[in-house]
């Protein structure tokens, strides 16, 4: 025994709910080590005792071959007072309120569990809640850390003797699987009518399949909330769902039974196929094939479907020969939060769904499906939800900060223990229930992390709900300009700490001069920036109404160019045109905007006659869908250098568009030429900025870059011009990533000692050169 040594080991990272303790137990036993392992807060604590060679082997295995779903941030190993253990054990968890690190997202059902479900001899045959240490719900059922059954919504389901035996058996893959259950002791599904009244049926799932085949709409309770489900090959059912859900055009997500079925309706690259089938099982945006297997009404006027594969046992049960594709859309009325409480679902969805398939396990945290796009070999997150959230990224700062995001695609970020913890997508903060859920997630995630932020970061816009809510927290506040937050977030994601060029294209965002920005070229770092170029400003009329009615954008651009408005907007009532023209002439409800998103809306309104939209960026998305990728031509453009920086002029571009319209060029050609022009002009402007500031690293961000054709072309052009190009991948390019950028900017400002007291927003609304983000609140001194 004298050669035996003892060590205390702490592991931080995503190490709970991934089978880490069973893995450590088995590995320690394999090396004949003694001691114990236990969860401590959100980390794992180990004490091992044995010979040095065995301890070295154990540590090598631990760091080289951890469980597949685990992510280790760091491991500390310190000598421990020699202790003699007779065996190696898994001990009960203990709290560590100082060290709450990361929370595991929900995972798709694994193939081993699916084999159990398909086996008629297995006691879990066709059981919808089958899971193990490698799969199943995590974040959505979690009430508190450490991750033990009593801290989840499974606490009210007592394990039967057989499940208990599996849970205690080190050789079983359900060893310490916290949601472990079976048909005897676990949750169950029941079927009800549109009022939630129970229906008598032998099998709720079999009855649900029958109803789907009959064209019915079913509200199905899943892992993170309710889906509204119907047969994706039944055009009448889909049309009914659109009417009832008040969603006339926005595309619906499709769930396909297997990858082979996806290949029948979409072109799928190897990387897209891999992403579809990963254990997050996101919705992946895929190019449509030119067949008519599915109704056009699913994704009207678009070139892509959003497709996912089954991720729970129940999903697999719903498919059979005559049901190959299902519509799976969030269980809500458009614009509102996803329903996850049974009573809310029955109230809000009773006029949408014909039937309800409900289970009796409580959902602790609502979470939408994630949305992914693949660009080459890069996987880009467009909506961070189930499987990816909460996301944890390194951000090395000693400051504890809560970043509150924006109003669109809301999310929040806690900077805690030198990591950024980003919440799931929370929707648009224009509805009371969305605002309430936003506050609830802040409280819940903060509690799980045991975070105690001393500062909060928010958008510059004083009317955003997120900004106004921040003012109620009593913390020291830091306002971060919208487009600087996008740039800072991209820099932080790529762990870049220097000075670079930010190209930020989006729809809106308050600038430091009080105007609306959105076509921005910035130079700066995470903590400060200067506006060195932008799309030429135009006077837009109507504020939010111009976003919802793209023809108003087109009219505003045409008005500045003295063009024949009636000629190019023939589908708009002449009286309406005259009202807006007069408002522009008299500067009534008008504002200056450099928004690239509004420029795209203008061209979409002119070419597609898209006068009104029913979902965000609809016109621009439809314009991208019309691109003929074989077209390489461009329109003329010009860039002027002024005291305010480089200005990308819009007149010559728009004149080219109007000339093509006069000549009745196909929309596909005009769209391609417009996209190519913006791409080329962006590269040329970046070259001018490099020459002036001697900078070569470029950071692309903002919602307009959700346009894959534009992003791909600009990245290609910048790379050919020898720039080092970065863009968001893990964090959304759109406003879903805004909170992360706010946090990164605020941390940098605090670290640089640039936190200066200010009592109003007046600092931001100055003419001249743009400046450091400043704070609103008290001194940063602790």
UniProtKB/TrEMBL annotation:
Keywords tagged on the record: Hydrolase, Ligase, Metal-binding, Transferase, Zinc, Zinc-finger
Q: What are the EC numbers? A: 6.2.-.-
One GO BP annotation of this record? protein maturation
Q: Where is the YrdC-like domain?
A: 202-387
Which InterPro entries does the protein's record reference? Acylphosphatase-like_dom (IPR001792), Acylphosphatase-like_dom_sf (IPR036046), Acylphosphatase_CS (IPR017968), Carbamoyltrans_HypF-like (IPR051060), Carbamoyltransferase_HypF (IPR004421), DHBP_synth_RibB-like_a/b_dom (IPR017945), HypF_C (IPR041440), HypF_C_2 (IPR055128)
Q: What is this protein called?
A: Carbamoyltransferase
Tell me the ranges covered by the Acylphosphatase-like domain, including all copies.
Answer: 6-92
SUPFAM superfamilies listed in its UniProt record? Acylphosphatase/BLUF domain-like, YrdC/RibB
Give the reaction(s) catalysed: an acyl phosphate + H2O = a carboxylate + phosphate + H(+); C-terminal L-cysteinyl-[HypE protein] + carbamoyl phosphate + ATP + H2O = C-terminal S-carboxamide-L-cysteinyl-[HypE protein] + AMP + phosphate + diphosphate + H(+)
Family note: Belongs to the carbamoyltransferase HypF family.
**Per its UniProt entry, what is the enzyme's top EC class, as one word?**
ligase
UniProt xrefs under PANTHER family: CARBAMOYLTRANSFERASE, CARBAMOYLTRANSFERASE HYPF
Select a single GO molecular function from the record's annotations and give it: double-stranded RNA binding
Q: From the UniProt record, give the pathway where this protein acts.
A: Protein modification; [NiFe] hydrogenase maturation
Q: Which NCBIfam families match?
A: hypF (TIGR00143)
Catalytic residues (UniProt): 21, 39
């Amino acid at each position: 025994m004298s050669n035996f040594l003892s060590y205390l080991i702490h592991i931080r990272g995503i190490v709970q709910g991934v089978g880490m303790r069973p893995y450590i137990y088995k590995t320690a036993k394999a090396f004949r080590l003694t001691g114990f392992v236990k969860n401590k807060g959100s980390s794992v604590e180990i004490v091992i005792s044995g010979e040095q060679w065995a301890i070295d082997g154990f540590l090598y295995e631990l760091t080289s071959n951890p469980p597949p779903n685990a992510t280790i941030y760091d491991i500390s190993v310190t000598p421990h007072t020699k202790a003699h253990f007779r065996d190696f054990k898994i001990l009960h968890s203990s709290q560590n309120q100082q060290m709450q690190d990361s929370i595991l997202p929900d995972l798709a059902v694994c193939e081993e569990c699916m084999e159990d479900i398909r086996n008629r001899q297995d006691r879990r045959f066709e059981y919808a809640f089958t899971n193990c240490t490698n799969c199943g719900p995590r974040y959505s059922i979690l009430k508190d850390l450490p991750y033990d059954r009593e801290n989840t919504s499974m606490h009210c389901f007592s394990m039967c003797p057989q499940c208990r035996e599996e849970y205690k058996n080190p050789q079983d893959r359900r060893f310490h699987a916290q949601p472990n259950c079976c048909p005897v002791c676990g949750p169950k599904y029941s079927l009800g009518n549109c009022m939630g009244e129970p229906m008598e049926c032998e099998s709720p799932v079999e009855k649900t399949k029958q109803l789907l085949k009959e064209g019915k709409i079913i509200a199905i309770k899943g892992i993170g909330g309710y889906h509204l489900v119907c047969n994706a090959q039944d055009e009448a059912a889909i049309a009914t769902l659109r009417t009832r859900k008040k969603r006339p055009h926005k595309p619906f997500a499709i769930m396909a039974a297997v990858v082979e079925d996806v290949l029948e309706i979409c072109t799928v690259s190897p990387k897209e196929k891999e992403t579809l089938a990963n254990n997050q099982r996101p919705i992946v945006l895929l190019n449509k094939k030119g067949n008519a297997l599915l109704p056009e009404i699913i994704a009207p006027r678009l070139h892509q479907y959003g497709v996912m594969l089954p991720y729970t046992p129940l999903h697999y049960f719903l498919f059979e020969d005559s049901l190959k594709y299902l519509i799976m859309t969030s269980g809500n009325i458009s614009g509102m939060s996803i329903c996850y409480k049974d009573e809310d679902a029955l109230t809000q969805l009773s006029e949408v769904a014909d039937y309800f398939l409900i289970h009796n396990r409580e959902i602790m945290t609502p979470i939408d499906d994630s949305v992914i796009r693949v660009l080459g070999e890069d996987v880009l997150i467009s909506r961070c939800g189930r499987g990816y959230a909460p996301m944890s990224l390194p951000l090395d700062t000693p400051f504890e900060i809560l970043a509150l995001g924006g109003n669109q695609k809301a999310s929040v970020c806690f900077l805690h223990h030198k990591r950024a913890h980003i919440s799931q997508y929370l929707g648009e903060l224009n509805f009371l229930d969305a605002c309430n859920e936003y506050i609830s997630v802040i409280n819940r995630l903060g509690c799980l992390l045991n975070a105690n932020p001393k500062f909060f970061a928010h958008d510059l816009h004083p009317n955003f709900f997120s900004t106004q809510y921040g003012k109620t927290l009593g913390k020291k506040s830091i306002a971060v300009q919208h487009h600087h937050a996008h740039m800072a977030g991209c820099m932080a994601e790529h762990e870049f700490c220097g000075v670079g060029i930010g190209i930020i294209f989006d729809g809106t965002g308050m600038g430091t001069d009080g105007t609306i920005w959105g076509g921005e070229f910035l130079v700066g770092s995470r903590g400060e920036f200067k506006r060195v170029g932008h799309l030429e400003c135009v006077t837009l009329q109507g504020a939010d109404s111009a976003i919802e009615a793209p023809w108003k954008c087109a009219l505003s651009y045409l008005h500045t160019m003295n063009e024949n408005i009636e000629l190019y907007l023939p589908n708009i009532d002449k009286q309406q045109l005259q009202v807006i023209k007069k408002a522009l002439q008299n500067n009534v409800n008008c504002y200056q905007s450099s928004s690239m998103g509004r420029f795209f809306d203008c061209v979409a309104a002119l070419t597609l006659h898209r006068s009104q939209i029913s979902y965000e960026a609809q016109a621009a998305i439809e314009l991208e869908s019309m691109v003929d990728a074989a077209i390489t031509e461009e329109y003329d453009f010009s860039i002027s250098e002024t005291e305010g920086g480089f200005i990308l002029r819009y007149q010559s571009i728009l004149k080219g568009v109007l000339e093509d319209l006069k000549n009745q060029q196909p929309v596909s050609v005009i769209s391609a030429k417009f996209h190519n022009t913006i791409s080329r002009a962006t590269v040329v402007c970046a070259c001018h900025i490099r020459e002036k500031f001697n900078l070569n690293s470029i950071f692309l961000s903002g919602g307009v870059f959700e346009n894959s054709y534009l992003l791909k072309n600009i990245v290609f052009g910048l790379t050919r011009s020898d720039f080092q190009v970065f863009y968001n991948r893990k964090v959304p390019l759109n406003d879903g990533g805004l909170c992360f950028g706010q946090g990164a900017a605020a941390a940098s400002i605090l670290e640089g000692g640039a936190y200066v007291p200010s009592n109003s927003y007046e600092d931001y609304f100055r003419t001249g050169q743009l400046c450091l983000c400043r704070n609103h609140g008290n001194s940063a001194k602790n």
